[in-house]
Amino acid sequence: MKERESRPRGILFLCVANSARSQMAEGIARSLAPPGVKVWSAGSRPTTVRPEAIAVLREIGIDITGHRSKDVGVIRVEEVDLVVTLCAEEVCPIFLGNAPRLHWGLPDPAAVEGPEEERLAAFRQTRDELRRRIPALFMETSDMVTNEESEPDEMGGKNGIGES
Prior knowledge:
- It is a single chain.
- The protein is built from 3 helices and 4 strands.
- The two termini are 19 Å apart.
- It has helices at 21-32, 51-58, 116-133, and strands at residues 10-15, 38-43, 82-85, 101-103.
- It is globular, with a radius of gyration of 15 Å.
- The chain is α/β, with parallel strands linked by helices.
- Mean pLDDT is 85; it is low at 1-5 and 141-164.
- Helices cover 23% and strands 12% of the residues.
- The protein has a single domain, classed as Rossmann fold, CATH 3.40.50.
């Protein structure tokens, strides 16, 4: 696939706590982003980055130990030209900029309780789904980014890739 001529120059991944899904998305996207593309994550009620998110990204060679949870209000609206919301069970934060939005409703791995291996398995599943979706943000795909909601995907969320 060819790179999109109008690919985003600033991508924001948005969630509530900015502790798991959006942090993993930021780390993965930064590892794949072409030069000149900025990537951020933020939340409406930031907490701390989950150690499980750090661990499962470390497994694939991505280090997010320096990441910190950020409030969506600290993101410079004028630099963002694509917003990807990742909330599934909760109400997604509002971003006041005019950037197009994609909604990828992924289950929150931080909500999984139980033994460490069960929690890590949930984080791995989310990580792997993000790894499947994020590369398309940097490729040429017709109607990839729209202001309208996408069709439900196989994980029960909305993928926004190639849907119109």
